[in-house]
């Protein structure tokens, strides 16, 4: 299967209501600043069904049971086409502790290129892992296998931990550039010449 077209691309932006009817802006923000932490964004077909309930609860439990979820401070977000009242009932009945969004018009589905699953009979069950810089790093589409998605996120977060962030790479590049400039013979010659000029002028 070909990789998802958004892999290694910035995550799309969208605004749709959460389970309380409040507009939720994605990527999430705090005080107008984008949250700098990994995101596990999972699309599920229908709230309250057997597979979706198990999947949603597995993500709920992973936030308190999986060390890598706690260590990376990953933000879990669930999305389905269900209306707000149904999402609210789902969240309350299952004690879900993360944002659950209502996408009746498939705004987020279209933005993330999430299509149909189960031979076109339902929306696909798809999960994305987005790094702290807002880049989509991996995705899994497995409509029937609801148990696979938390396991997929665990592995994807492990890969993120082993890779330097864009910010870290930038800092390394800056240090290397400074070191290269300091080792440049022409730079040393210029400094020496400036020193001699300064000495002559002061004399």
Record the SSE blueprint:
Elements: E1 14-17, E2 23-26, E3 29-30, E4 33-34, E5 39-43, H1 50-65, H2 67-72, E6 75-80, H3 84-94, E7 100-102, H4 107-111, E8 116-117, E9 122-123, E10 126-130, E11 136-141, H5 148-162, H6 166-183, H7 185-202
Parallel strand pairs: 5-6, 6-7
Antiparallel strand pairs: 1-2, 3-4, 5-10, 8-9, 10-11
Entry summary:
The protein is an alpha+beta fold and 203 residues long. It has helices spanning 50-65, 67-72, 84-94, 107-111, 148-162, 166-183, 185-202, and strands at 14-17, 23-26, 29-30, 33-34, 39-43, 75-80, 100-102, 116-117, 122-123, 126-130, 136-141.
Description of the structure:
This protein has helices at residues 50-65, 67-72, 84-94, 107-111, 148-162, 166-183, 185-202; strands at residues 14-17, 23-26, 29-30, 33-34, 39-43, 75-80, 100-102, 116-117, 122-123, 126-130, 136-141. The protein is an alpha+beta fold and 203 residues long. The strands form four sheets. A five-stranded mixed beta sheet has the order 7-6-5-10-11. The protein has a two-stranded antiparallel sheet with strand order 1-2. The model is unreliable at 166-177 and 194-203 (pLDDT under 50).
């Amino acid at each position: 299967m070909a990789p998802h077209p958004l892999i290694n691309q910035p995550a799309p932006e969208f605004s749709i209501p959460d389970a309380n009817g409040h507009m939720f802006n994605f990527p999430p923000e705090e005080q107008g600043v984008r949250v700098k932490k990994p995101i596990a964004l999972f699309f599920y077909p229908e709230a309250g069904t057997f597979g979706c309930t198990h999947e949603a609860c597995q993500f709920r439990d992973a936030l308190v049971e999986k060390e890598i979820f706690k260590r990376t401070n990953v933000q879990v977000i669930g999305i389905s086409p269900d209306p707000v009242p149904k999402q609210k009932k789902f969240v309350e009945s299952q004690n879900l502790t993360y944002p659950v969004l209502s996408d009746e018009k498939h705004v987020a589905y279209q933005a993330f290129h999430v299509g149909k699953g189960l031979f076109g009979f339902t929306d696909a069950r798809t999960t994305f892992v987005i790094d702290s810089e807002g880049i989509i790093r991996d995705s899994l589409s497995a409509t029937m296998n609801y148990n696979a998605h938390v396991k997929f996120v665990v592995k994807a977060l492990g890969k993120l931990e082993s890779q330097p962030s864009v910010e870290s790479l930038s800092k390394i590049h800056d240090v290397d550039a400074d070191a290269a400039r300091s080792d440049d013979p022409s730079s040393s010659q210029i400094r020496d010449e400036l020193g001699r000029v300064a000495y002559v002028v002061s004399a």
